[in-house]
Amino acid sequence: MNPVQPEQIPSEPTVPLATATPTNWLIGQDGLRSGWRLLLYILIVVVSAAVITTGIHFLERAFGHGAPTGPPSALQLLLQEILSFALVFAAALIMSRIEQRPAGQYGLPAKEFLGSKFWIGFFVGLLEICLLVGLIGLFGGYSFGRLALSGGDILRWGAFHLLFFLFVGLFEEFLFRGYAQFTLGQGIGFWPAATLLSVGFGAVHLGNAGEGPVGAASVVLVALLFCFSLKRTGNLWFAVGLHASFDWGETYLFSVPNSGLVMEGHLSNSLLHGARWLTGGTIGPEGSVFCFLTMGLQFLVVALLFPTRKENGTAARLVIS
Question: Whole-model pTM?
Answer without folding.
Answer: 0.84
